[in-house]
Amino acid sequence: MRPVRRDRKAKQTVNVSCRIGKAEYDLLFKDSNNKGLSLNSLINNVLKRYLAWEKSADEIGFIPLSKMAIKKIFDSMDEKTINEIAREVGQTIPRELTFLIFNKLDFASIMSMIEIYSTRFGALRHEINGTKHDLTLHHGLNKKFSQYLAAVLEAMAEDLDLKLIVKNADKTILCVEIDEFTSIYNGEPSQN
């Protein structure tokens, strides 16, 4: 996965000393060894995930559900209900989540939010071809969930004036293409 193009400042680090419980340290140390990471890398990953997702997810009201529960919920829903829910979610949550995480709404922050949000459901591949961003999300749930995510992204694209094409929405994978724009979104739709 290639990252979204954005201005990168020199990466600065700070040494931090803090106290954690022995049991938590032992669990973190064991997990870092199992993953082949240094303890420092694992702790940085945990902090990044908290800052990029958990902190904002709590504010918006996300709750954790198992894939089994999500699959059963979507299996029981009809297409009209799925589209109604997706439209409402797509017109509010992406904008709110992007502002909460990044405190701005430009193309780079929107794409980063989509990446963060999508990886909550499975593996994401993001390829950039010129101004086209191809996203492939392997969620492994069902076709109705792919339809839901596609409808969420379509409503988001309409709300944020993005050009988005759903290329595939099957029982395990959703593939979309989003055209990059260069203007900064400042509360009014871009004129692309």
Can you walk me through this structure?
The protein is α+β, with helices and mostly antiparallel strands and 192 residues long. The chain has helices at 22-35, 39-60, 67-75, 79-90, 93-102, 107-118, 143-160, and strands at 123-129, 132-138, 163-169, 173-179. It has two domains: 22-59; 65-179, 2-Layer Sandwich (Muramoyl-pentapeptide Carboxypeptidase, domain 2), CATH 3.30.1380.20. The chain is 51% helix and 15% strand. A four-stranded antiparallel β-sheet has the order 1-2-4-3, with helices on one face. Helix 5 crosses helix 6. The model is unreliable at 184-192 (pLDDT under 50).
Please write out the topology.
Blueprint: H1 22-35, H2 39-60, H3 67-75, H4 79-90, H5 93-102, H6 107-118, E1 123-129, E2 132-138, H7 143-160, E3 163-169, E4 173-179
Antiparallel strand pairs: 1-2, 2-4, 3-4
Helix pairs in contact: 1-2, 2-5, 4-7, 5-6
Briefly summarize what is shown:
The protein is of the alpha+beta class. 51% of the residues lie in helices and 15% in strands. The chain is globular.
Q: What is the CATH superfamily label of the largest domain?
A: Trafficking protein particle complex subunit 3
| Radius of gyration from the alpha-carbon trace, in angstroms | 18 Å
Helical amount: 40-55%
Number of domains: 2
pLDDT < 50 runs, ≥5 residues: 184-192
